[in-house]
Design a protein that fits this description.
The strands form 4 sheets. A 6-stranded parallel β-sheet has the order 2-1-3-4-5-10, sandwiched between helices. The relative contact order is 0.15. The chain is about 40% helix and about 15% strand. By secondary structure, the chain is α/β, with parallel strands linked by helices. The two termini are about 30 Å apart. It has one domain: Rossmann fold. Bound molecules: NADP nicotinamide-adenine-dinucleotide phosphate (NAP). The site of NADP nicotinamide-adenine-dinucleotide phosphate has 26 residues, from helix 1 and strand 4.
Length: about 270
């Protein structure tokens, strides 16, 4: 089976390519140089690759960049996704779209697939509107994930390891840090079993940013001073949901338990 990975140059995409190739899938990874979702003739360009399956992980993924550049955020995350969905529709192939815990407002966790989204920032709104285009396809999967980290680095774990002291951490923001290796195996399970609909995938347990930072430092055997701060003092443009913890009961029931982020982080540190 030939799988087009749109966003194949991203942090999740690069890990996904390797894992799916090991499963004997033929992977065509595309970054924005090969396919700009905001450019011309996106649908035709996708069709020319003649994939049997499309995985769409591309996004303007920086929450603050989305808030600073809302037009770009909607153009990539919403209308880019519309173009991908239209191509899948024309090709009559299934589409798996990566979405986010930030579609929720963070007031009533944990969130199941049936809960009503209510995003609090441009990133969440643009990704949720992207979901609406994907839902038009009967054989599509929307996979919501949270707080990514992984072997590709350039993520929150890296930020903590490189940060000057004291590290400023938002007071009581909570979710589940999730490893890109584990998401990639989840994608393999979902597409291999030909399921459709919304799925939540996130690594247990749910933690505050403070606990997450403390664990990153402890597992790397590094000591740094941490300071808990409020949003206002950080001076970032985008609001975040306070507790966007995803419930993964549906995934657990169908595919089994998800390993902890602690175990996944230890595997990455040990190489
Ligand atoms: N990072 C998180 O904590 C997090 C949390 C929840 C959900 N997610 C979702 O998970 C997915 C993967 O995230 P990630 O962290 O792997 O993202 P990432 O590292 O920022 O990678 C983004 C990908 O999107 C591509 N892209 C950006 N603009 C594009 C455009 N105009 N046209 C085509 N491709 C474009 C990039 O291509 P180039 O690099 O070639 O430009 C890259 O391959 C995203 O859908 C994101 O919304 C992320």
């Amino acid at each position: 089976m030939k799988i087009l990975v749109i966003g194949g140059t991203g942090r999740l995409g690069r890990v996904l390519n390797v894992i799916l190739q090991k499963e004997k899938y033929t992977i065509i990874p595309l970054g924005s140089n090969e396919l700009d979702l905001t450019g011309k003739n996106v649908v035709d360009k996708i069709i020319r690759y003649t994939p049997d399956y499309i995985i769409h992980t591309a996004a303007l993924s920086s929450v603050d960049e989305c808030e600073r550049h809302p037009n770009l955020a909607y153009n990539i995350n919403t209308y880019g996704t519309e173009r991908v969905a239209n191509a899948a529709l024309k090709l009559k192939v299934p589409l798996l779209y990566i979405s986010t815990d930030y579609v929720f407002d963070g007031k009533n966790p944990p969130y199941s697939e049936d809960d009503e989204p209510n995003p609090v920032n441009v990133y969440g709104k643009s990704k949720l509107q992207g979901e609406d285009f994907v839902k038009r396809l009967s054989s599509s999967i929307i996979l919501r994930v949270s707080w990514l980290f992984g072997p590709e680095g350039n993520d929150f774990v890296d930020f903590v390891l490189k940060a000057d002291e004291p590290i400023s951490v938002i007071r009581s923001q909570t979710s589940k840090p999730t490893c890109t290796i584990d998401i990639s195996y989840a994608i393999k399970n979902l597409i291999g079993n030909r399921v459709s609909g919304i799925y939540h995938f996130a690594s247990p347990p749910s933690v505050s940013r403070l606990e997450w930072v403390e664990s990153i430092l402890k597992l790397n055997k590094i000591k740094k001073e941490i300071r808990e701060v409020n949003w206002d003092s950080l001076n970032v443009p985008a609001k975040r949901p306070l507790n966007s913890t995803l419930s993964t009961n549906k995934y657990n029931k169908e595919f089994g338990e998800i390993r902890s982020w602690n175990e996944a982080l230890r595997e990455i540190i040990d190489g």
